Amino acid sequence: MSYLNVISPIDGRYNSTTIRLRKIFSEYEFIKIRVKIELYWIIKLSENKLIKEIDHFDSKTIKILNRIYKNFNLNDAKRIKEIEKITRHDVKSIEYFLKEKFSNHVKLNKIKEFIHFACTSEDINNIAYALMIKKTKETIIIPFWKEIIKHLKSIALKYSNISMLSRTHGQPATPSTIGKEFINFIYRMNHQLNILSKIKILGKINGSVGNYNAHYIAYPKINWIKISEEFIKSLGIYNNFCTTQIEPHDYIAELFDCISRFNTVLININRDIWGYISLNYFKQKILNSLEIGSSVMPHKVNPINFENSEGNLGLSNALMKHMTEKLPISRWQRDLSDSTVMRNIGVAFSYSVIAYDSFINGINKIDINIEKIKSDLDSQWILLAEPIQTIMRKYNILNSYEKLKKLTRGKEITQENIIKFIDSLSIPEKEKKILRLLSPSKYIGQSKEIVNKFL
Questions:
Q1: Residues 165, 146: Cα–Cα separation, whole Å
Q2: Structural domains of the chain, ranges and CATH numbers in brackets
């Protein structure tokens, strides 16, 4: 199947960006990882001396079992899907497939009924999803976040001293610096990165309703809680020993909430950069002379990367919001309403990955138009109404705010107007000198110190 005739843009238009996720969330990979869990579980059972019906596996047997997983291929996956057409159950199909494989070996054939021993299908599935999510978090999401933050830090450091006109409610407001405005976003992103890094990925393997009923009836002398925890930890995740039939997915909700918050911050900066491009504060590098911005307006270079990023972040957040609200809720000990939703976890991640990639491509193409930023700020002497009235308040001059309001509101204010007003004030000469030397580009508070402190 070509990327041109798939339904979803995830596997179509954005195929080259999402291919790394296909190696985690495809149906093939989902089947393969469940095969691995089933095999590792029977190996774990063989290690327990109280299960006398399974001889302790020697190194040769372990190698045979590992080969089943390591040599797993597309034909194996197709065989499982063929079995599923009959069983109408995906995990049971994997069990029957493994029984076929065990039948080819005398020692394994004798204990093939221990495949999927005391497990409910959710024991296998929840661990599979946990491992898929863990891999995505550690190898894709966190590296992407770090790369985004690195690019923003580079800009913040490079332009930490460039004063710029702020806008509150879309109108000229107290100046800032480019560095400080980027730091605002970096600070928020770093906070979410720290939270995401600490979220524990959970799994469970405790039977039909979470009580080890089948395990205990067969081998009451085994400490199944301990065995379960050891097995889960051996896979690199954390054990959730208190569940119903399903792992309750609270950690998935926690993880998606965190990713959604990061995505929301990124939506914010996408929109701000889009706005700064429209103001000509930021210019976009033309990397390809043949690239076209508009099909009819030759002059245009559209901020498509930031628009694409914003749109895909919205799609990702919408899916994640549904999952955080739906997945932690089940009916009594379980229902299947989470099953279909869980199969779309990779879709939610994919939209985020597309957005991150677009943002990085966009941020690599912007230059700062210092001349435009400077000229806009230098014309806004009206902004000094704030520091002047603040100094007036310091010396208890009545109606300070109102006097500046009368001077400035709805009027064109020049440096001469400001100097004249300062000279008329009944304040110490040292304060007048400070105010006379002030200009819009110098009225930036501790912007530089904030950038330096953070970086």
A1: 29
A2: 3-117 (1.10.275.10), 122-372 (1.20.200.10), 381-439 (1.10.40.30)
Q: Which two tokens stand for residue 337?
A: 């309403």
User: Is there a contact between 260 and 252 (Cβ–Cβ < 8 Å)?
Assistant: no
Task: Report yes or no: 108 and 233 within 8 Å, Cβ to Cβ.
Answer: no
pLDDT of residue 455: 83
Q: What's the pTM?
A: 0.95
Quick one: tokens of 441?
């580009």
Q: Tell me how far apart the alpha carbons of residues 300 and 88 are, in angstroms, rounded to a whole number.
A: 55
The residues assigned a catalytic role are 169, 294
Per-residue buried b or exposed e for 325-336, using 16+ beta carbons within 10 Å of the residue's own CB = eebbebeeebee
pLDDT (average), residues 283-296: 75
Sequence-ordered list of residues with C-beta below 8 angstroms from that of 314, at least 6 positions apart, any chain: 267
| Predicted confidence (pLDDT) per residue in 100-155, tens digit | 999 999 999 999 999 999 999 999 999 999 999 999 999 999 999 999 999 999 99
